[in-house]
Design brief:
There is one protein chain. By secondary structure, this protein is an alpha+beta fold. The protein has 3 domains: 170 residues, 3-Layer(aba) Sandwich (D-Maltodextrin-Binding Protein, domain 2), CATH 3.40.190; 118 residues, D-Maltodextrin-Binding Protein, domain 2, CATH 3.40.190; 225 residues, Dipeptide-binding Protein, domain 3, CATH 3.10.105.10. 29% of the residues lie in helices and 22% in strands. It is built from 17 helices and 24 strands. A 7-stranded mixed beta sheet has the order 8-9-10-1-11-22-12. The longest helix is centred in the first third of the chain and has 19 residues. The N terminus is likely disordered. InterPro entries: Peptide/Ni-bd, SBP_5, SBP_5_dom. GO terms for molecular function: peptide transmembrane transporter activity. Belongs to the bacterial solute-binding protein 5 family. It holds the Pfam family SBP_bac_5. Keywords: Signal, Transport.
Length: 538
């Protein structure tokens, strides 16, 4: 089975329960309010600067992109009715729809779209983000007429299409607003809903855009949304979200722990769906420039010595999928060959640690050398502590001590500290995941920091990896790119031991049985906005 077929099969399996639940011969009806409990509060309501994939479930109600994606990853019209890409990925031409308006009344045209791409080149706007990393690749932005935008890059870079197609388009007036960085009502979009109110730490409410007429080809209907109002309540604790849905305080929730999934799976009062995300597995990225992990043998011991499967089973009750590679199993670029190729080899791992000189043991049983304990500080951003990741890291910490004699020190930090620690390079490992597609996630993690590796947590700069990245980025041939990334992941994970993939992030949705049309985005498989949602009698 090829990657495209695998993706379709996985999608069908994940959505079977949903299809059965909504197959009743009811006609969608307009009206009503929909309240959803969500795990993540956006750190800004400017979708270009948010940086939190989990916040997309709220932000996609207001802001839209040039192209949408089919389940197989192919691009289909949205704000752009068509596109052209040069074979070497150096030039992209987008032809826009002529009937689209922002919610503030401004018309979507080539100049409005071009201004969005120009801001990706403005360090004062996007410094330190992957947005600026992409903008730095642009050589020229042209608008030969009101409906055409042509973007020429400094050199061929095929992952740019995924970025350009997905960039959320802000209204022209946004660039002159004091709300630009924080987001707000003045930062208008073209979406099916309009931001109505925001209560920090509590909830955000959107109202229907009555003029909406340009849903993407992946949507289930056209015209305005069915719902009049949508409210997202910020409830970080999974058990709280679950309790609120079971008690009727909410209509739906996302982000369901393995312990809570059983509350909905066999319960006729609710529907339950889950689907793997695209992008990089939640992984431990090991720093090659600082502390004990500078030694390849220590990194290899960690990659080979840990036994991840029983930990996942214990923490998630079998409700999560083991991560093995550098991207998701639902992506066309995924390579199954790495599955089962490493890990659960404690004897070999301990020999590596002995060879590295960590032969002594201190009073607590940890390995030491020259009187120094084998300690690795693991940094976890507090903003991305979700899906029981704190429990998972504690279990890995315990296993590393028991199996290898390594002291994993877990450190949870706020956003400011996280940025400062990353920039300093003084950490042992960083735990994180990413949802970007088409190799962008791979580029961000393994391209040298000085060359655009926005989230190169391992701080690697390897000639072989760099050459493979360049090769993959210079062709649109998916088979060739898959081969290049296959070589890269063997180099990164087996030879250099730059990361320990843990599990592939997924999203889960549970909803009351009167909720219809709530599902996942067709490619990234994250919870979709409320555009297709409608409510029957309770």
């Amino acid at each position: 089975m090829n990657a495209h077929s695998l993706h379709r099969a996985l999608g069908a399996i994940c959505l079977l329960g949903h299809v059965a639940a909504v197959s009743a011969a009811e006609t969608p009806r307009s009206g009503g309010s929909f309240t959803v409990g969500v795990e993540t509060e956006p750190n800004t309501f400017n979708p270009q600067l948010n940086g939190q994939a989990k916040a997309d479930v709220t932000l996609r109600n207001v802001w839209e992109s040039l192209l949408a994606r089919q389940p197989d990853g192919s691009f289909v019209p949205w704000l752009a009715e068509r596109y052209e890409a040069s074979p070497d990925g150096s030039r992209y031409r987008f032809t826009l729809r002529r009937d689209v308006f922002f919610s503030n009344g401004e018309k979507l045209d080539a100049h409005a779209v071009a201004e969005n791409f120009r801001h990706t080149q403005d360090a004062g706007y996007c410094a330190g983000s992957s947005l600026c990393m992409m903008g730095a690749r642009i050589s020229r932005i042209e608008t030969p007429d009101d409906a055409t935008v042509i973007i020429t890059l400094k050199q061929g870079y095929t992952p740019f299409l995924s970025f350009a197609a997905a960039l959320e388009i802000l209204a022209p007036a946004s660039w002159h607003s004091a709300q630009l960085k924080s987001g707000g009502k003045e930062i208008a979009g073209t979406g099916p809903f309009i931001l109505d109110s925001y209560e920090k730490g509590q909830q955000v409410t959107f109202i229907r855009n009555p003029n909406y007429r340009w849903a993407p080809a992946t949507a289930k209907h056209q015209g305005p949304a069915y719902l009049e109002r949508v409210t997202y309540r910020f409830l970080p604790e999974s058990s709280v979200r679950t309790g609120a849905l079971l008690s009727g305080q909410l209509d739906a929730i996302e982000g369901i722990s393995g312990n809570d999934a059983g509350e909905f799976k066999e319960n006729g009062d609710f529907t339950y769906q889950h689907a793997l995300n695209t992008g990089t597995p939640y992984s431990l990225y090991l720093n090659v420039d600082y502390g004990p992990t500078q030694d390849r043998r220590v990194r290899q011991a960690i990659v080979q010595g840990l036994h991840i499967d029983p930990i996942l089973q214990s923490v998630y009750r079998g409700e999560r999928t083991r991560g093995w590679g550098i991207t998701s199993p639902v992506e066309p670029l995924y390579d199954k060959a790495l599955e089962g190729k490493y890990g659960n080899q404690p004897e070999a791992a301990n020999r590596l640690l002995d060879e590295a000189g960590w032969t002594a043991r201190d009073g607590d049983g940890f390995r030491s050398k020259n009187g120094q304990r084998l300690t690795i500080e693991v940094i976890q951003a507090q903003a991305t502590v979700r899906d029981q990741r704190d429990v998972l890291l504690q279990a890995i910490q315990a296993q590393a001590r028991q199996r290898l004699g390594i002291d994993f020190r877990l450190r949870y930090v706020d956003s400011g500290t996280y940025s400062a620690v990353r920039n300093s390079g003084q950490f042992g490992a960083i735990a994180n995941s990413n949802t970007e597609t088409d190799g962008i996630d791979i580029e961000n993690h393994y391209r040298p920091i000085s060359q655009g590796g926005a989230i190169n947590y391992s701080r690697v700069n390897d000639e072989q990896i760099n050459a493979l990245l360049d090769k993959a980025a210079s062709t649109l041939d998916v088979a060739q790119r898959r081969q290049d990334y296959s070589e890269l992941q063997n180099r990164a994970l087996i030879q250099l031991a730059l990361a320990v993939p843990l599990y592939q992030p997924e999203d889960q949705i549970a909803a009351a049985r009167y909720v219809h049309g709530y599902g996942f985005r067709s490619f990234k498989q994250m919870p979709e906005n409320a555009y297709d949602v409608w409510l029957s009698d309770r």
